[in-house]
Design brief:
It holds the Pfam family DAO. This is Gamma-glutamylputrescine oxidase. The protein is α/β, with parallel strands linked by helices and 426 residues long. Helix content is 34%, strand content 24%. Strands 1, 2, 6, 7, 8, 9, 15 and 16 form an 8-stranded mixed beta sheet that branches. β8 and β9 form a beta hairpin. α5 crosses α11. The longest helix has 22 residues. The termini are far apart. The relative contact order is 0.19. The site of flavin-adenine dinucleotide has 43 residues, from α2, β10, β14 and α11.
Length: 426
């Protein structure tokens, strides 16, 4: 019997005490079975339990073992492609519908944290920082766009104001999102899992789903048990592997790397005195923030196709030192990698495999808030109100060019082109 434990991350080392759930060893019946205990699965389970459904969650490893327990912890609003792109590609009606939900995910997280008393170091405030004049212009447009869709908590910061909140000389301006913020991602997932169980939901760990029988009352099977349900929610995202071949065909797992410094003590004020989280505006972006115990958590870089790199510190540390030369002597205590799921359109993929098997995946690197929205929308759809879920489900999704063999080099080439443009400021 194989057991998969958490990767050696800062988050696993600072996780609050939590239950170790047993493996599924029996045959169960329930209203809804959820595959995967990341934010997508846990948010779905929680919304469904609140609506009175019985729910079983099957997790291949541990709660929050995937991207949800390893990410940058940034509550970034909207989607990985913004509503202006959605309007251009899919029309005003789709943009209006998706735009009406683009700030909902972070509200859901805040409600969850408050309602279930989740200890996850929630802090308000997120910054998008510009490295070139083109990006400064982009931030102004970004502000106007989000305000058009009802955001009332945005502030434009010029170069001097930006340096007051991020002690780095790299940035020419910033957009401060007071509705953004950051969290300890694994503790959020663990808190949500505890909330699921407090409402009677069952979670099994070390229980990988090996097959889904797509019948009127579907059955999902694990090595030692099965669950028959009225509905299935597939929430395995970048770690789903080949369980659902048609989902694997239109998405690509990608790795991104994160490091955590030693606690900075009083020095944190020389780095990020605002305690906001930060992401830059580059195509291949850097993202960073302080943890609850004032370490700098710094992420960046993308590995298309999601190989696990050997020397993570040597990939990310130079980025950290470029942003904060004052931290050249800092010790790195943790370095880890995690996979997110990229789609060609950079928009999430929601849909149905048949009438009663739902899926949500492919947040393309901006998933902390959208996963929480996804859980709410699938619960609405299962209850019979599917208009909002279907607004996402109707987005067309194409496979990556180059097929399974050449999609990685083809996408890396595209990314290289866009990051070159970022470097040149064009
Ligand atoms: C390093 C990193 C940094 C990131 N930073 C940010 C950020 O700062 N802000 C942001 O918005 N987004 C960020 N993201 C993206 C975000 O974390 C993800 O979009 C989000 O967590 C996806 O949640 P999920 O529940 O869909 O998938 P996951 O959290 O990956 O969960 C999927 C779960 O399904 C389980 N599973 C898979 N297959 C099976 C099976 N057959 N049977 C049972 N269980 C199965 C897996 O074990 C896993 O636990 C980051 C991602 C990474 C990797």
């Amino acid at each position: 019997m194989s057991h998969t434990e958490y990767p050696d991350s800062y988050y696993a080392a600072s996780a609050l005490p939590h239950a170790v759930r047993r493996q599924l060893q029996e045959d169960l019946h329930t209203d809804v079975v959820v595959i995967g205990a990341g934010y997508t699965g846990l948010s779905s389970a929680l919304h469904l339990l609140e609506a009175g459904y019985s729910v079983v969650v099957l997790e291949a490893a541990r709660v929050g073992w995937g991207a949800s327990g390893r990410n940058g912890g940034q509550l970034v609003q909207s989607y990985s492609r913004d509503v202006d792109v959605i309007a251009d590609k899919y029309g005003q009606d789709t943009a209006r519908m998706l735009g009406s939900m683009m700030f909902e995910g972070s509200q859901i997280i805040r409600e969850r944290v408050k309602k279930y008393q989740i200890q996850c170091d929630l802090k308000d405030g997120g910054l998008f920082v510009a490295l070139s004049d083109k990006q400064v212009h982009g931030l102004r447009e970004h502000k106007a766009l989000w305000e058009q869709y009802g955001h009332k908590g945005l502030e434009f910061l010029d170069a001097r104001q930006t340096q007051d909140v991020v002690h780095s000389e790299r940035y020419r301006a910033a957009l401060l999102d007071h509705w953004g913020g950051h969290i300890h991602p694994l503790n959020l997932a663990l808190g949500e899992a505890a909330a699921v169980e407090s409402l009677g939901g069952k979670i099994f760990e070390q229980s990988a789903v090996t097959s889904i029988e797509r019948t009127a009352k579907p059955i999902v099977r694990t090595e030692h048990g099965s669950v028959q349900a009225k509905f299935v929610v597939v929430a395995g995202n970048a770690y789903l592997g080949g369980l659902v071949p048609e989902l694997a065909a239109k998405s690509m797992p990608c790795g991104t790397q994160v490091i955590a410094t030693e606690p900075l003590g009083e020095r944190w004020q020389e780095v990020l005195p605002s305690d906001y989280c930060v992401e830059d505006c580059n195509y291949l972006l850097d993202y960073f923030r302080l943890s609850g115990d004032k370490r700098l958590i710094y992420g960046g870089g993308v590995i298309y196709g999601a190989r696990d790199p050997e020397h993570i510190e040597s990939i990310v540390r130079p980025k950290l030192e470029k942003t904060f030369p004052q931290l050249k002597d800092v010790r790195i205590d943790f370095a880890w990698t995690g996979n997110f799921l990229l789609t060609l359109s950079r928009l999430p993929q929601f849909g149905r495999l048949n009438d009663n098997i739902y899926y949500m995946q492919g947040y393309s690197g901006h998933g902390v808030t959208t996963t929480h929205l996804a859980g709410k929308l699938v619960a609405e759809a299962i209850k019979g109100q599917s208009e909002r879920f279907d607004a996402f489900a109707s987005l067309p999704h194409l496979p990556f060019p180059g097929g399974r063999l050449f999609r990685v080099p083809a996408t890396a080439l595209g990314a290289w082109y866009y990051s070159l443009r970022d470097k040149l400021g064009i």
